[in-house]
């Protein structure tokens, strides 16, 4: 089955190849092709060009994209989309003056979600999560990473990861799973953190690997959660079992997590709301992608990741949602791209590059996704008729998506 998009006002993020993420000033370049066509065959981008070069294709389904833009679908490289229930009460508590840390100290936060998840059946958890996945696909997300970390027991962590595995089987978009057993200390281990880390390393991780349930290993490296020494220990154990690190660092405090991540060849370091010059220097030493999560900053009222400092020092940057019940109950990548421009002073080109090419790198799928490149998956966003691509972040909060395609197939309901 072939699909031909014709009269596309602009094809955005057109690249012959994407071997490396985009760094520093490269992020300002967003290659586009005006008045274009694009052919999809067998779920892949087969060819594209300017309208005055359009060949006479036979047996194609034609889509007239006059006035509309076609771009690679958003790639969300950091989410906690599998969770049970919600934490609306904590949202109200924060409105009334408590901080995220104070709520966690009172037994709320991650352990609150863990309690809910432990009490939820695998079937119900799947249904809640599938609904969220469909919601974000309609908003243009065409590849996603999902973490465990709301289980905090062997059984519940495996339950989460099996739900992710079932989502992978039932949905066509790339889904990568990350084992985040080191998300918080369960209350029963409050006095014995080492015992929980032993359980995580000696029981949970081997089972996760045996059942092939995760590609990445994550740690919440933060004061009051997992220390630098804990992080190093868990990353090493994960690497020994073949799990690549991809970790939460520098959300509230910088405690050396970036250095540990780079030393362990982490694929990404995520959050970075607090960033010191030595963190930037450490990132320059490796291939680890910094990932900013601006909708978390918006929701918690914490600082935004200093994108200008990162990009202007020659580094790459990716954007993701952090979709989770506590700090970011939103999986809207369109809002993330807008916030990156409005609050982090990224220009539209940088933000779109960060949510496509660099996001694909942060998910380990840059060779197959993230750009309009021949042979890559036809995971695409077709916008409504809009004046320019900059209009997407500019008109924040609005939905200008006409339709979303995954492997060339239209996502229903958008
Ligand atoms: N910071 C750690 N984990 C999540 C929040 C988890 C929660 O509050 O449930 C995050 O990335 O923001
Ligand atoms: Zn997170």
UniProtKB/TrEMBL annotation:
Residues where Zn(2+) binds: 78, 80, 248, 322
Cofactor annotation: Zn(2+); Fe(3+)
Domain of life: Bacteria
Pfam families, per database record: Amidohydro_1 (PF01979)
Residues that, per the record, bind N-formimidoyl-L-glutamate: 150, 324, 326
Cofactor binding note from Swiss-Prot or TrEMBL: Binds 1 zinc or iron ion per subunit.
UniProt xrefs under InterPro entries: Amidohydro-rel, HutI, Metal-dep_hydrolase_composite, Metal_Hydrolase
Coiled-coil residues: none
Enzyme Commission code: 3.5.2.7
Family affiliation: Belongs to the metallo-dependent hydrolases superfamily. HutI family.
Function: Catalyzes the hydrolytic cleavage of the carbon-nitrogen bond in imidazolone-5-propanoate to yield N-formimidoyl-L-glutamate. It is the third step in the universal histidine degradation pathway.
Name of this chain's protein: Imidazolonepropionase
Annotated gene: hutI
